[in-house]
Amino acid sequence: MKKISLKNITKQYDTNQEKILENFNLDIYDKEFIVLVGPSGCGKSTTLRMIAGLESITSGELSINEQVMNDVPSKDRGIAMVFQNYALFPHLTVFDNIAFGLKIRKEDKKVIKERVEETAAKLGLTNYLKRKPKDLSGGQRQRVALGRAIVRNTNIFLMDEPLSNLDAKLRIQMREEIIQLHNQLGTTTVYVTHDQTEAMTMASRIVVLKDGAIQQVGTPHEVYMHPANMFVASFIGSPTINFLTVKVTSHALKIDEQKIVEMPLDNSTPNEIIIGVRPEDIELVSEPDAIKLTIHRVEMMGADKYVYGEIMGQKLTVRVHNELDIQSKQHLHIKLNPRKVHLFEKETGKAIETFVKDTVVV
């Protein structure tokens, strides 16, 4: 069942300015955890604010639970929003911050007390209800912001980069807590972030945005394994995917006369394309006639090392185990697995669907 539907949505602040979104279409289903991800200025927060009723819609139709919401005030949309800066009242206690929305709606005092205490117990805030926000850690403040949303008993949550002000360790912890809450409450959640790690670890589906347009919608696995274009391939995954410009021959892809990978392609493939290969999908080999990688720099990253180098003038990053003794200015020999190579049109950046030994490669 659709919970939120955006049909041909366009957003423009001024007729003389560029459109923030244009012909934006997205259906969000019951109990999904949808993550809108993309670089700054791509339109993800604007989309969230239009769903919330905090931004007007220039054209198109927004519906929630099959009711058109374009002109419905934010307070009547049956949603709860969690902001990046927590938006807590500094002069109110944790109890009063969580209870604020209920008091505005003039709920019974007994009901407010019961629901606030129940929500605080879920979030581990029972012992902090009398404190002010200044007496809390960043993670505790974020829990209070979540509590203010949860206490309303709505089934749609909107979250605008709620973890961006937390340190790395706390972000990981809060990611887990938000997902647990989502599953426990059975809510539909729309979550905005610029962090692809958050998107990959939290989403049931990811919406990748660029310049106000959807580039791809899919599960984390689909977006990672089958990127629709070079932008998606480069934005999702760390370290970022390698791109190499290659010539297409009847049985192989080459740089100059060096065979990069054996890949018999059909006749519809252009003569020159760009291939993408992720750093973890490159194999180190001992064959002297294999591709030679000249190493420029090695980074120790804990369990792994990132090896930065080049092959025939084109940059390449390889992810290897930290126990390998690899130094800069060395040479390594590498091999590419054709089933791990992504193909893209050079002119448009779109993924090429073709056939390699009866297996579809995108």
From TrEMBL:
Membrane-spanning residues: none
This protein's UniProt keywords: ATP-binding, Nucleotide-binding, Transport
Cited Pfam families: ABC_tran, TOBE_2
Entry superkingdom: Bacteria
InterPro entries in the cross-refs: AAA+_ATPase, ABC_transporter-like_ATP-bd, ABC_transporter-like_CS, ABC_transpr_MalK-like, ABC_transpr_MalK/UgpC-like, Mo/tungstate-bd_C_term_dom, NA-bd_OB-fold, P-loop_NTPase
One Gene Ontology MF term: ATP hydrolysis activity
GO cellular component: ATP-binding cassette (ABC) transporter complex, substrate-binding subunit-containing
Family matches, as CDD domains: ABC_MalK_N
SMART domains: AAA (SM00382)
GO terms, biological process: carbohydrate transport
Every ABC transporter domain range: 4-236
Protein's recorded name: sn-glycerol-3-phosphate ABC transporter ATP-binding protein UgpC
Species of the source: Psychrobacillus soli
Lineage of source species: Bacteria, Bacillati, Bacillota, Bacilli, Bacillales
Gene that this sequence comes from: ugpC
